[in-house]
Amino acid sequence: MAHRGQERLVVDAHLAELAALPCPVTLISDLTYEKHDRAGRRLEQFDLLYGRQMPEPACSWSWEVAPFGEESPATRRTHTVAAYLDWSVGAA
Questions:
Q1: What is the DSSP string of 30-79?
Q2: Mind listing the pLDDT tens digit for each residue in 60-73?
Q3: Is there a contact between 15 and 29 (Cβ–Cβ < 8 Å)?
Q4: Are the beta carbons of 79 and 48 closer than 8 angstroms?
Q5: Among 19, 26, 37, 51, who pairs with 91 as Cys (CB 3.0-4.6 Å)?
Q6: C-beta atoms surrounding 27 within 10 Å
Q7: Distance in angstroms (rounded) separating the CA atoms of residues 58 and 85
């Protein structure tokens, strides 16, 4: 397990290993999360890849991970998810 502050190194190493595989690799990854209140105000935002810049994905979407009432009656959490059909191409 990474020590605090080394999360980006772990992300970079993992993506490099995927790109080095001798076969096509489909990568689906959560990029960010946001927490909103019932009025739609953003209360939190977090970069799940710790600053790693990603290429343009084949597609992306918003995923409601925790609707109102699951983590709190007053908040909902959504993730931005991206899909890369062949990471070895996207990583270049």
A1: EEEEEEEETT--EEEEEETTTT---PPPSEEEEEEEE-TTTSBTTEEEEE
A2: 999 999 999 999 99
A3: no
A4: yes
A5: 19
A6: 20
A7: 7
